[in-house]
Amino acid sequence: LILAATIVSSVVQPLFGFFADRRPSLWLVPAGVAASGVGIGLAGVAPTYPLIAAAVAFHGLGVAAFHPEGSRVAALASGDRRATGMSIFSTGGNLGGATGPLVITPLVLAFGLKASLVPLLPILLVAVYLWTQLSRLEASRPGRSGAALAPLGPDRWGPFSRLVGIVMSRSVVYTGVTAFLPLYFAGVLGTSKARGAAALSILLGTGVVGTLVGGRLADRYGRRIVILLSMAALAPLLYALASVRDAKVATLLLVPTGLALYLPFSVLVVVGQEYLPNRVGTASGVTLGLAVTAGGLAAPLLGLVADRWGLVAPLLLVSALPLVAVALTLTLPDSRAAAAPMSR
């Protein structure tokens, strides 16, 4: 079921991004929110497994429709603080992903799977609200009076392709850490399963802060330096996390590890948009969607590694991938030179 949602969302996102560049369609923002909510709502009441999978896939389609157009508008509305604006946009998604289970789990426990329909009402209300704001979103489009200026300069596909390699490397690291961190705490460090889940919550909670801080740092000091330093720090932090055998020390390492993992999250999306200034939707669809699929595809391989060599092995393996990202980052030119400054 997760594969159905992930593959549909990730693979289709670049297509929606391409469509958004050719023919901007702001209606996809409220429509995407509505479709994703309807898909999840119906998944809880669908009577057969194929229908459940279809509902989950429809949810993924809604996510795919929302992200490219939504991130394109967020970038345009952010003016010359594009990284900060994108970090706020990304934090909204991270917070939603973190609080969603806290909302739906008690409802399902109390009323059964049909409780998946309960959040549908607020989701549709949000979609209606976004529909009423389309005129304001339209004001952010290039060429409109008082709108952000259109990006200038050629699309730079070479640097963009190397950037995708960095995004893919980080995606595999993220998948490996989030999948095996609770198991590592419980199976290797000897803590309870609840303690392992809490460790993951600490990491993801720190990530929310890291996303916001990363955007501000990128606007102040530059995009490359944030990506470079965070990836350079992530490799030894992950290695240390996988090597310690004291749960207290491992818990302390979660905070700097979460910061290093999430600092470049929104920055990578912005750099992609600046490398393809004439195809912002496509850049968003690839960096937010297609490249992230690498993490999902790597998950079964990491599972095989864990089965053969133990729960420490996948964490040690992914600790080397930030070094690949560092090497690729060193080849990247200044992304802001690829696009003209954007102002309100």
Would you kindly provide a brief summary of this structure?
The chain is mostly helical and 344 residues long.
How many angstroms does the end-to-end distance come to?
42 Å
State the shape: globular
Radius of gyration: 20 Å
The counted number of beta strands is 0
Specify the number of helices: 15
**How large is the share of residues in beta strands?**
under 5%
Helix content: over 70%
Q: Mean pLDDT, rounded to whole units?
A: 86
| Low-confidence sequence ranges | 144-151, 340-344
Polypeptide structure, described:
With 344 residues, the protein is mainly α. Helix content is 77%, strand content 0%. It contains 15 helices and no strands. The longest helix has 31 residues, at 157-187. The model is unreliable at 144-151 and 340-344 (pLDDT under 50).
Question: What is the topology?
Answer:
Layout: H1 2-22, H2 28-43, H3 49-77, H4 82-111, H5 120-132, H6 134-138, H7 157-187, H8 193-221, H9 223-243, H10 247-262, H11 265-275, H12 280-290, H13 293-309, H14 312-318, H15 321-329
Helix pairs in contact: 1-3, 1-12, 2-3, 2-5, 3-4, 3-12, 4-8, 4-11, 7-8, 7-11, 7-13, 7-14, 7-15, 8-9, 8-10, 9-10, 9-14, 9-15, 11-12, 13-14
Question: Can you tag this structure with a few keywords?
Answer:
disordered C terminus; 344 residues; mainly alpha
